[in-house]
């Protein structure tokens, strides 16, 4: 125990300066990330957020076209969701020797919205926890060991979720991961069937649209065909709708495009509207009973914070708003408009390789620059991101496993005028060219280095 403890109060933290904030983050959280944020001049100190807008401590506003990587379908701090959480604040915050009545209501709603007989819900706090729940459910049900997933897939950062992920850099750092986990090319039914023929696969886990892989859409009908193959060989199909769920792709769930009916669906991110973390793994009664339907097993899917009243309140209100305001239809409409505008941009700028995705989950893939080597390739997206933020007030990022694919993933409440502003800003950025972007980025970075204490 330290003799002289000096803590920072909430009020002091709230009032801290931009410099103090980033230095504390650098010293105690993530030095590498802090250095990169500072170098690119994207270490803004945001003091308020509402809808699509962020506001910094200098009074500047920014439109958020990253939307918490799909968590902010309703935008920042949706008032109705905040009010629902406040109204639930008098309920027992954690009740493990009993039950929270909001859990049953939320689970009933999910059962009503999801296809087939997906009626049983297990609760977690983050997406990766729901992935773990799904994997454990598949093993407990099937008594098989093997999991199949896809190259370039992203399912989270816990150990099991990493094991069914497809990113080599995670495997390189954290390996060896769990045994009996194998990957196949995304969208390749022949490879899937080859793996399933052994009769030892517990489940095939897949994203309906690969998110962090770069907004990659599978061939039409692929998910339904994958469902049929899994059932032919006795494996379960797990669909990870963490980033695609609740309207993001232009349907309430992306599985609707192929009419797929999975055995387990995983949901998180936008389910809590970015207000309180919540995640769920939803399966059938048949699977749940075989996996957990006994006195010595029913509690194997219970966690301390899973399904707490605040999280359930946020989710119940989020679902209500999503359906009431037809945000799925809105995402389809604005998504089509956005894609058309971005395709026009592609025809104008050779730096753009491809526009892809569904609804408002879009990716702008960049051509690798022919000059500058690996260093320029590595920094191309950060240069564009920095330019958009500092010169046009547009916040975006790239997909984690695809550093040459920019996100175009705003809240589903975005307007066409806001889309126009973002596309016009991208047009201005691309018009500078690789050399112009590189020169501006280098000048800004050098200036920040010189000014640093």
What is the gyration radius calculated from CA atoms? Answer: 23 Å
The first-to-last residue Cα distance is: 32 Å
- Number of contiguous helices: 17
The main sheet orders its strands as: 4-10-9-8-7-5-6
- Structurally, how many domains make up the residues? 3
CATH class of the largest domain: Alpha Beta
**Strand-residue fraction?**
15-25%
Question: Largest sheet at a glance?
Answer: 7 strands, mixed
The CATH topology of the largest domain is given as Aspartate Aminotransferase, domain 2
| Helix content estimate | 40-55%
The chain-level mean pLDDT equals 94
Number of strands: 15
Fourth CATH level, the homologous superfamily of the largest domain:
Type I PLP-dependent aspartate aminotransferase-like (Major domain)
Protein model, in words:
This protein has 17 helices and 15 strands. It is of the alpha/beta class. The radius of gyration is 23 Å and the shape is globular. The strands form 3 sheets. Strands 4-10-9-8-7-5-6 form a 7-stranded mixed β-sheet, sandwiched between helices. α14 packs parallel to α16 and α15 (373-392) packs across α16 (416-431). β14 (398-399) and β15 form a beta hairpin. The longest helix is centred in the last third of the chain and has 22 residues, at 327-348. The mean pLDDT is 94. It has 3 domains: 1-37, no CATH class; 45-77 and 326-451, Aspartate Aminotransferase, domain 1 (Alpha-Beta Complex); 79-324, 3-Layer(aba) Sandwich (Aspartate Aminotransferase, domain 2), CATH 3.40.640. The protein has helices at residues 10-14, 18-28, 31-39, 67-70, 79-87, 101-113, 127-142, 159-163, 168-174, 189-196, 222-232, 285-292, 309-324, 327-348, 373-392, 416-431, 433-451; strands spanning 46-50, 53-56, 61-64, 118-124, 146-150, 181-184, 201-206, 236-240, 264-267, 279-284, 352-358, 361-366, 394-395, 398-399, 402-408. The two termini are 32 Å apart.
